[in-house]
Predict the 3D structure of the following.
Amino acid sequence: MVEYSSPNTNKPLHLGHLRNIFLGYAVAEILKAIGHKVTKVQIINDRGIHICKSMVAWQKFGNGETPESSGIKGDKLVGKYYVEFDKLYKTQQAELMAKGKTEEEAKQEAPVMLEAQEMLRKWEMKDQEVYGLWQKMNGWVYKGFESTYSAMGVDFDKLYYESDSYLLGKDEVLKGLEKGIFFQREDGSIWVDLTEEGLDQKALLRKDGTSMYITQDIGTAIMRFRDFPDTVYQIYTVGNEQEYHFNVLFKILKKLGWQQADACYHLSYGMVELPEGKMKSREGTVVDADDLIAVMAGVAKEVAEEQGKLDGLVESEKELLYHTIGMAALKYFLLRVDPVKNMLFNPKESIDFNGHTGPFIQYGYVRTRAILRKTEKSVRKFDLSKVVLNQAEKSIIVKLHDFPEVLAEAAKRYNPGLVANYCFELVKDFNSFYQNVPILREENIDLRNFRIALCDKVGSLVQAGMRLLGIEMPERM
RNA sequence: GGUCCCGUAGCUCAGGGGAUAGAGCAACUGCCUUCUAAGCAGUCGGUCGCUGGUUCGAUUCCAGCCGGGAUCACCA
């Protein structure tokens, strides 16, 4: 089982999610390719204080605004009210501090925050009005996410919602308390003591009885253990800032008696940073996923129009192609880097379409396809004994032979970057061969047909390799 | 402060106990009447953070240090 994406429903997807989603998807595909049966799952963090914040703000300032009435994509609309909440919250904090409160007090006592907390309590009691609003606004978000996922070309086999699993989590925490695995403080909050495991004490349930992030994660994990009892590996694709959290989670599951905890693995990846540092939603430096996808297709269009190679195609085919090429650039950019490393995205320089990039690889593939289109399959026979290999061909053949090893290593290390870099090297060798060695122009029939076969082989391997990364190969570009 | 991760060309990144450490971008030279130039051929550019250790051999493994990041909430 591979989990990826795990979005909150209070704001749209951004560049960080993109790395997560492409990474999780690629790891799942790579594991499939070496023979595992893989279930791709998504956990949707649809409940909690964060969505209550958007809800409070919408009630205050929304005037009934909907995606339909405003023409704003659902997830973006809800995100807009999340920002509204934050603005008001900041203002109220400042007012309280002006009246002599400490920053800590101001944060806790700001009226909107109290409203959001009250709303969370009402939600947990299934208050009709709150619940209805929650369903409505989440519905907007899901629709928005769906369109983004579809543009990204990723899919899931099963969706989990925290609103379905947090009660189970709460239950399990209470059961654990009865069994003496956890303990309760005087104020009523419930804790686990992990000091023997080298960690700390960690709260599992608030004093008001509402559940926390970790509570719902316990529930979700157990739900999955039950749904998929044969799962050998449960991989959580989540950023490295949550390493401690997963450490704690797995130890708690073990304490609760789930041996499957040993099969759980946190596939941790580094942050995508901007030249000025981390993306901050508060400072508006977050790179929006939809925007970036659109920009990439736009660049693909510019390049294509400049070169005029697609002039024979109808508009809809062109648009599809721009998207295919743009996504290749974007996905390749994010996947070629070792997941454990932080990486840099510079919006000013944008993402390249030349050199070590997705489009470069697509271009190599397109060249193989152009060659193959010009020959009949039936007349491609050759006598290998009459073929003497040149250096370029040898180099390609050696690389072709390496693929299974690269794939195995990528699976073992959960690192799609190995496949990405492999495909680049193969295409680089192929391009050199293509440009320096005659193929269709070769007069010796055995040699010509051998070279055509080599094109075929390179093309299909590159296509297969890139497919594992979720990157599609066009027929022409 | 504890724990974890990262440090390789001006920039972005590969690599990995063994020979002259690679690629892309940037800069500069050539190459489209010839299978699509989103390309090819080439020039320039590195005491692989520092110091020790293990080893016949370390950029790679180990330790310490320095620099950068993450995390240690009744946040998610």
User: Anything to note?
Assistant: Chain A has a mean pLDDT of 93.
